[in-house]
């Protein structure tokens, strides 16, 4: 009986991993099916933050975090997807709240830090809806140059994911994690320099 239950559980894990893989490739039906499965957990997590505006906007943010979790999850690491997604969602919500708090604190601050490479492009271009869209398109071009591992590093540098989550992906290989972060910083600086030169010419 124990073997039967173990086999059934393993079959469910394999089925879920297949759905996660399809969702990561952009299959909306697979993503929707998985998100519905984890909706009770999602709502409980949102409720735990005592959000003042607990509405569809926050659920949409959870959906974004869920998709990111599908894209970056590594089935080869002995961490359940539910645990990984909860961590992704928690960090995504915290990141949003940090940005909102920072925006309030710097509402009257007009200076732009040119040293902050990963936010420079967004800060100097994203002042109107059209420019926000343009910025996103430019960043999408940069993301296309990244490997899946480098994309995780990029999310860490942006504050969308934590170093702990990166170490999960590298199986606690700190040197590999730091090399990845350094590589993405270098690539991004080259990308920004090229973009600035094209704008000036």
Draw up the topology in text.
Elements: H1 2-24, H2 28-37, H3 39-48, H4 56-72, H5 81-105, H6 117-125, H7 129-144, H8 148-158, H9 163-169, H10 174-200
Helix pairs in contact: 1-2, 1-4, 3-5, 4-5, 6-10, 8-9, 8-10
Walk me through what this model shows:
The chain is 77% helix and 0% strand. It has 10 helices and no strands. Helix 6 runs parallel beside helix 10 and helix 8 packs across helix 10. With 201 residues, the chain is mainly alpha-helical. It is globular and about 60 Å long. Residues 105-115 have low confidence and may be disordered. It folds into 2 domains: 1-108, RNA polymerase sigma factor, region 2, helix turn helix motif (Rna Polymerase Sigma Factor, Chain: A), CATH 1.10.1740.10; 111-201, no CATH class. The relative contact order is 0.08. It comes from Candidatus Paralactobacillus gallistercoris.
Q: What's the quick description here?
A:
The chain contains 10 helices and no strands.
Helical content (DSSP H or I, runs of 4+): over 70%
The total tally of domains equals 2
* CATH class bucket of the largest domain: Mainly Alpha
Which stretches of 5+ consecutive residues score pLDDT under 50? Answer: 105-115
Q: Beta-strand level of the residues, as a percent range?
A: under 5%
């Amino acid at each position: 009986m124990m073997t039967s239950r173990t086999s059934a559980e393993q079959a469910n894990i394999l089925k879920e991993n297949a759905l996660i893989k399809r969702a990561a490739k952009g299959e909306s039906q697979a993503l929707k099916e998985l998100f519905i499965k984890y909706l009770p957990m999602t709502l409980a997590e949102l409720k735990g933050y005592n959000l003042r505006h607990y509405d569809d906007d926050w659920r949409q943010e959870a959906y974004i975090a869920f998709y990111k979790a599908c894209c970056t999850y590594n089935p080869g690491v002995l961490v359940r997807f539910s645990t990984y997604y909860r961590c992704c969602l928690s960090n995504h919500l915290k990141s949003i709240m940090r940005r909102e708090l920072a925006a309030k604190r710097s509402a009257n601050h007009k200076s732009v830090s040119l040293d902050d490479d990963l936010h420079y492009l967004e800060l100097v271009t994203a002042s109107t809806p059209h420019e926000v869209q343009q910025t996103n398109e430019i960043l999408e071009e940069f993301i296309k140059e990244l490997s899946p591992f480098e994309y995780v590093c990029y999310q860490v540098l942006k504050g969308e994911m934590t170093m702990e989550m990166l170490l999960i992906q590298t199986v606690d290989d700190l040197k590999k994690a730091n090399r990845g972060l350094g590589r993405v910083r270098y690539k991004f600086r080259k990308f920004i320099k090229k973009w600035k030169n094209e704008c000036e010419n």
